[in-house]
Amino acid sequence: MVDATLRRARGRIAWSQLVLGAAGFAAFVAAWWLLVHFAVWRFSKLPDPFSVLREWTSRKPEYGISLFAPTYYQDIWASTVRVTIAFLLATALGVPLGILLGWNRIAREFLFPLIELIRPIPPLAWVPLAILMLSGQQEAMIFLTWIAAFFATVLNTMLGVTSIDESYLRAAYCLGSRRWDVLWNVVVPGSLPFIFTGLQIGMGVAWFSLVAGEMIAGEAGLGYLILNSYMELQTTTIVIGMVTLGLVGFLSSALVRWTGRRLMTWQSH
């Protein structure tokens, strides 16, 4: 009885969220259409949402980019591969380093000031050095994407480790656990919510850092598509590229969230 009531309550909440989300999208599209057609400020220079939708779904797009254009998917694939490589590298390097910084005081005092000095440098400031240091444009764009995701992952992981209640650590030691056992069985699981928050943030900043890199050094990808469309005054294609970025970024973050929920099933009990 209780389980059935909980399921119905969750169903009502999910339906309410869906309706509110749809209403939010509808309000945004309506505001966009009104701003364009009533020439508010400089919005008359933009395409309206229905023009974008027609171009996006056209079998013969005016500017060559639509759901039926092979080059559209080539740009999506190029950007996705770069983000995936950078994100995996940021995870593989950032999570262990964040655990080390949170777990070991000497490592934190030694490395954290350096990380805090480098972290505020925007990815675009690294462009000249990335091009000089690395052998090709592909490697440079991956580096620019990686460096943004890396710091978000490190800092959130470190925060997760330092936020664990000391009483859990003392209890584990009192039960005879060794330091490595405490780290693996208490610290790492306890840090997972923060780690996956950092990974979601890292995925988001990876996408916008990649787009900036592709606009400067790319020859394919969604960032290159947007810049090239701007140079050719194809505003409809610019919006298609931006919407695609939003969708792909949303799906990427959703995959990270789903993975986190699978690894943290204990949180739902």
Fold and architecture overview:
With 269 residues, the protein is mainly α. It has two domains: 46 residues, no CATH class; 222 residues, MetI-like (MetI-like fold, Orthogonal Bundle), CATH 1.10.3720.10. The chain contains ten helices and no strands. Helix 3 crosses helix 9, helix 8 runs parallel beside helix 9 and helix 8 packs antiparallel against helix 10. The longest helix is centred in the last third of the chain and has 39 residues. The mean pLDDT is 86.
What is the string of helix and strand elements?
HHHHHHHHHH
Shape: globular
Q: Give the fraction of residues assigned to helices.
A: over 70%
Give the end-to-end Cα distance, rounded to a whole number of Å: 18 Å
Q: Low-confidence runs (pLDDT<50, min 5 residues)?
A: none
Please tally the helical runs, counting DSSP H or I stretches of 4 or more residues: 10
Secondary structure tally: strands:
0
CATH architecture field of the largest domain? Orthogonal Bundle
What is the assigned CATH homologous superfamily of the largest domain? MetI-like
What does this entry show, briefly?
The protein is 79% helix and 0% strand. The chain is built from ten helices and no strands. It has helices at residues 2-37, 49-56, 70-103, 105-118, 127-133, 137-162, 166-174, 179-217, 222-231, 235-263.
